[in-house]
Amino acid sequence: MKTRSQSPPRETNRSSPDNHPPSGEARQSPREASQSRRSFLKKAGGGLSFVVVFGPAGLAARRPRTPDTLDALMGADPPGSPAAEHPFGAWVRIATDGQVLIYNPAAEMGQGSMTALPVILAEEMDADWDRVRIEHSPVEPGVYGRSWSGRGRGGSMMTAGSMAVRGYYMNLRLAGAQIRRVLLDNVAREWGVPVSELATEPGVVVHAASGRRISYGEVAAFAEIPDELPEVSEAELKSPADFRLIGHSVPRHDVPAKTDGSAVYALDVQVPGMLYGVIARAPVHEAGPASFNEAEVRGRPGVVGTVTLGYGVGVVAETVEEAFAARDAMEIEWGAAQADGFDSVASLAAYAGIADGESQGRPLSESGDVRAAMDGATTRYEADYFNDYVYHAQMEPLGAVASVNPAGDGAEVWAGTQAPDMARAAVARELGVPVEQVTFHPCYLGGGLGRRTMADYIVEAVQLSRSVRRPVKLIWTREDDLQYGAFRPMSLQRLTGGVDAGGNLAAWTHTVVGDGRGLLASGIGIQYYDIPNQRIEMRTASHGVRTKHWRAVGHGPNKFAIESFIDDIARGEGIDPVELRRRLLRGSPRGIAVLDLVAEMADWGRAPPGGRARGVAFVERSGTLAAGVAEVSLEEDTGRIRVHRFWCAADGGVVVQPRNARAQIEGGIVNGLSTALFERLTVRDGRVEQSNFHDYSILRMSDMPDIEVRFIDSNEAPMGLGEPGVPVAAAAVANAFAALTGRPLRHMPFTADRVLEALNG
């Protein structure tokens, strides 16, 4: 198989040394920014520094142990020094001028974590939010990593699964409360008053009896931090009624920089002596280059070198244009791959045969006696649901800057990633060096959706830089990103249900078939529905196409199938869909409350405007319970579904930042509607057929419905809000379509041809 590596017209998102910020001033380099942060922390009489460290009981604030602690945090200490061995955590710095610097450990990809996490710490500190500065934390998972439970020692800096706020919430509150206690103790000692007579207001300690007030900056000038900070229990934390920041929307930290162009993304980074790299990747996933016209490519203008990789050929050149021209001139002979000849449409159709097989798949959940309950059912329901591959389609294509040192035993990297700790470790493995010899600078990222939990694009930049021993900016085009992506797997969902003589849904089976292993299982459980006899299983296929977590992982396709099937049963039994779900949720007051709220929001039971219908769905994701109602109409001649309105109610515990939380739910609904109505990736003869947004359709502004989101008031710990909007969307739309036409939609996305087929079937 020989190809000439030319691409269709591409969306390049390219940078060049001539790019400047809109103001015309030179953009501060990441190195300069790091140095200025260090200078800020050391200025003005020292101030107060708090190290927040993990211990058996969770996070705790401590004083710095050595004079070099600050440099250690910033990555300036040599490996093995006392500072490097200290288990650092989130740093809080109170300067004598009253400024408070808080480090944020989570990736900022548009979801607002760079505001929400510092808000939690600042709340319990009683910091003046107007005086707070926020910076990316260093990449030290043993220091800044969080636990998946949200308590105790953690070790992951991955921002995924709606875990940022949920994972750090209680630990950051406790740490903030300890810092506040230290400030109070110091003022009590300085003024000679009982600490019980002191209180705080934002950035100020107050003694009401004497009317005295002192700012945090003034306290920082004389305060001492004890070696062992006072213990603070959860019972001593603020009452939610006293929150000034949590539950009250504040301006997002990242928005001004993104608005004025000063926010640094990987492709904004400029390093002296930097070259540009691009890669011709295999047209079939994982195929390797057997040979290519190396001499010709190396002889082209500006080309500095080429690199043969396991699944492609990279070229490094002096300019972006020269790099792309050299890639377009490549003639590559590709080797064999597992995906050769793979046809996704035919394979998906063949999944039914796998589901029909007599041998059972891997059980994921089982309770009761399904066979007996199904045999005793008076009515039995069965349906198959399908979904195609889905591409992440994050707005910023991939890219990274890497500088491997001349000896090849260390590197400096700039990248936007959801998992900077994993990326740093992957670079170290590639170079065969300790992780301490890799300096990693997290950048803003223009969307992740799970794709940027992978480090492949970052390792590629390192491979190219190592080959030339100069800094290299690696650029992926949209075509690269789409055709050599890692996709949400296609799958078949087979569901059966048995209703007993009393009208109860007594038996339930769900078989999922697909390629993606654990990616298929997410969201397949029905733990909130009271169905006594269940069997849920997975049957796997293998095609050689790369798959990966996609926003909400398997909840999108699985909840589409589950919630559509619930409506099938409701119609068959002559029960209102909301009422059937209320019966199934009888053991979950929270679930019923969410369902009732969305029914109230949508005025469920009232006839919608002429030519429209409504559908409902209920889901759980990341601990959040959500219910949605879609109102749709149909152009019967074209098969186009139009979603006019979408209502969503959610119970996600404490909502740290309400305005941003609504945006998160709304964004999830947008993603969910996009995959429900448009997004479809297909593979023919092993090759991805789509190349850009002209043939990989996504939801456009003209397709947007009016969306209303409400939250259940709660004082419970916060749950994840970034993903529940995704799975609730498709099923609500499918159920609205069925209510409108009497026909089910069972293959996502609901393209016009599939809608017409359903109408005529």
Describe this structure in words.
The protein is α+β, with helices and mostly antiparallel strands and 761 residues long. α4 packs parallel to α6 (164-191) and α19 crosses α20. It is globular. The chain has 21 helices and 30 strands. 30% of the residues lie in helices and 23% in strands. It has a seven-stranded mixed sheet, sandwiched between helices. Strands 15-23-22-21-16-30 form a six-stranded mixed sheet. Strands 3-2-4-5-6 form a five-stranded mixed sheet.
Widest sheet: strand ordering: 12-13-10-20-17-18-19
Query: How many strand segments?
Result: 30
Instruction: Give the end-to-end Cα distance, rounded to a whole number of Å.
Output: 41 Å
Rg from alpha-carbon coordinates:
28 Å
Q: How many strands, what sense, and barrel or not for the largest sheet?
A: 7 strands, mixed
Shape: globular
Which class best fits the helix and strand makeup? alpha+beta
SSE topology:
Elements: E1 2-4, H1 30-42, E2 48-55, E3 58-62, H2 69-73, H3 82-85, E4 91-94, E5 100-104, H4 113-125, E6 132-136, H5 141-144, H6 164-191, E7 198-201, E8 204-207, E9 212-215, H7 216-222, H8 254-260, E10 275-281, E11 289-292, H9 294-298, E12 303-309, E13 312-317, H10 320-328, E14 331-334, H11 344-356, E15 362-367, H12 370-375, E16 379-387, E17 399-404, E18 411-415, H13 420-431, E19 438-442, H14 456-468, E20 472-475, H15 478-483, E21 491-499, E22 505-514, E23 533-540, H16 555-573, H17 577-584, H18 589-601, E24 612-621, E25 624-635, E26 640-651, H19 658-677, E27 683-684, E28 687-688, E29 706-711, H20 725-741, E30 747-748, H21 752-760
Helix pairs in contact: 4-6, 13-14, 16-20, 19-20
